[in-house]
Amino acid sequence: MISVEKVQRRNAWRYYVRGVAFGDSRRPARRLLKDAQEEAGLPPGVWMGRGLPALGLSAGETVTQRQMELMFGEGRSPDADRMERERLDDGADPEAARSETALGQPIEEVEKRKQIPLLAVEFVFRAQASLIVLWALGDDHTRRVIERAHERTIATVLRWLEDEIAETRWSSGRQRAKAPALVVAAFRHFDNRDGFPLLHEHCLILNRVQRPDGEWYALDTVRLYQHVVAAGTLYTLTMTTEVCEKLGLATMPREVTPGLRPVMEIAGVDQELIDWSSTRRQRIEDALEGITDQYVAKHRRLPGERGRHGLGWWAAQDTRPEKKTPRPLHHLRAWWRASAILRFGQRLVDGLLQRCRTVGAAIRAQVSPLVDTVLAAVDVAAIVYTVRRCFARRHVLAEARRHLLETLRGRAFEPGLDDYIADRALSRHGRQLTVPQEGRRPPAPDQLTYTADFAWPARWWIAGTGGKPPRESTRYERARVASLAVQNAIRAARSAPAPASDEAPAATALTAAHGDHDQAAAAPHAVDHPGRDAAPTPAQRAAAVHAHQQAAMPELLEGRTTDPATWMSTPENLARFAAYKREADARRRDIADRPQPEQPTDAVGPADQQQHHTPQPDEGRGAARDH
Questions:
Q1: Which of 198, 172, 247, 259 is nearest to 459 (CA)?
Q2: DSSP assignment letter at 174
Q3: Angle, CA 20 vertex, CA 12 and CA 81 arms, to 5°
Q4: For residue range 84-123, what is the model confidence (pLDDT) as tens digits?
Q5: 432 three-state secondary structure
Q6: CA-CA distance, 163 to 37, in Å (whole number)?
Q7: Which of 85, 179, 202, 593 could form a disulfide with 166 if both were Cys (CB 3.0 to 4.6 A apart)?
């Protein structure tokens, strides 16, 4: 995952030099950064990005304290001291010599307009908890594999940002240009503030990039913020896939918060080990309970989904411990191993990797490396539409990457498959809402807004557990129901008779709704169903899609694209509201089975016919809910 922060104050660089660059600790006063890092056994910060050569820097070069002050504190070149000294020797005015070393508009001019300059944007990359446990307790080979995957994945995300996202703007945003060259200072940390394992990377992205003519201008940081989720899913998907392929592992869903999207963790890492490494989570949950009570007392209602995120951030800040004394990695690993052995026993710790490989081999043997792009596009579009109603390509791309992570379970896939699924979901199931206006610049493709025409699932309430009050179903739970409704349509088409010649228009509509499997097989990245007929009917095509996905994701794996009877991530989720849904389905079937009064054919208008044939969100789910 990726978290983002702004770096705005001119003295903010001191926080990173004194703390972040020193292992999130407090560097001793009047000690050089390099000397303090060497004594503490901490890795130095390094430069990354394609924009380094324009500043006289190179990738992998160590970040110095003076460079941080010049670039992230004053917005000047890292070689500003030499450049300014040479200009002064030539007789230039001191103020002019200083302004010539600025990268773009001097910060002083921004402050004169009573504005707060944005100096950088901080991206923090962190892996899943199960990967961190393997990294902390595994042998040296496992640690190096995970660290190399972490490094390469960060480089991959930065290249994606440079190639696809980064833009520079000027003239108050009216003029824009691609900026395929970022300047990034990266600092690696090994533990959290409690001293427990937490492999993560602080990446400071300089808010200055070069225009095609060589001038330096500000980044369009709005685009960076908009694509943070897509970048985070790319980091998780790429790193998890590389580690699983290198070590022979697989992933499985783990529910962190009831009703929210599960986290794909390494299969075989016990929940107790994850709780051991995530020391702050219990304190945050305890604090969040009290903050939520205060919110209910003040507003007389439970917080919504956005409100829960805000309260969670508040609880995390309230429970944040003080900075610690840094220690080198080999000391931390020895202490982590001793702590885990005392709590869980040496047998469990020593056999962790082998157990993960055993479980991973069983899962990988059942999961096909092929992905059904037809069903993937339908699933992605249905979920994004239900969660957001109106969406852009970045939302679909992030969901496509989540789909690959949940479907492939750590198996490798062909590069570009996520973009192909996203484009297919937009072209086949999306409806563009953005209308270009005459006389105005046409919007970029990733700024277009779409919607879809899937059935909208009704809300329901879920009984509370452990003395907690009932809660409303989340958007993610309703999105899973929307995806299930589409799968049920394919399931029904599987047993439908072959259409006659006069039913061809209806069959064509069904094929258009769920995708033409023959066309998908001819497209890049798509897969064909082996043994299909030379000229299958639309019902057979839909059945082929469903059957192929069944082979790729068997029922025992409980993935999102398995049999609809196992659509929930865990049996606990299914039992939580199964009783409520069965009761609602029973009432609906009872109403549908009642004899309707006969009406003349001409008395039923087109509007009534359309209303009568509108598919309901829960149609066809009665049999699935009883399992």
A1: 259
A2: T
A3: 55
A4: 888 888 877 888 888 888 888 888 888 888 888 888 899 9
A5: strand
A6: 34
A7: 179
Residue with tokens 């398995």: 562
Amino acid present at 365: A
Tokens, residue 325 = 């004394």
**576 token code pair:** 């939580």
Residue 498: burial class (beta carbons within 10 Å; 0-12, 13-18, 19+)? exposed
- Side-chain half-sphere CA neighbours of 427 within 13 A: 11
Q: What are 365-382's pLDDT values in tens digits?
A: 888 788 888 888 888 888
Closest by Cα among 201, 203, 221 to 72 = 203
3-state secondary structure (DSSP) of residue 537: coil
Alpha carbon distance 518, 136 (integer Å): 47
If we measure between CA atoms, which residue out of 402, 401, 311, 377 comes closest to residue 526? 377
Distance CA 483, CA 378 (A): 8
Running DSSP on this structure, what letter comes out for residue 258? T
Nearest to 356 by CA among 131, 114, 112: 131
**How big is the CA angle at 549 (ends 543 and 551), to the nearest 5 degrees?**
105
pLDDT, tens only, 591-604: 667 665 554 444 43
Report the alpha-carbon distance of residue 61 to residue 58 in Å, rounded.
Answer: 6
User: Phi and psi of 189, rounded to 5°?
Assistant: -120, 150
d(CA 386, CA 475): 7
| Helical spans, DSSP H, in 74-219 | 80-89, 94-100, 107-112, 129-137, 140-160
Quick count: other Cβ atoms within 10 Å of Cβ 471?
A: 14
- Cα torsion 377, 527, 554, 398: sign: negative
DSSP assignment of 464-525: -STTPPPEEPPHHHHHHHHHHHHHHHHHHHHTSPPP-GGGHHHHHHHHHHH--HHHHHHSTT
Whole-model pTM: value is 0.75
| Distance between CA atoms of residues 30 and 379, nearest Å | 58
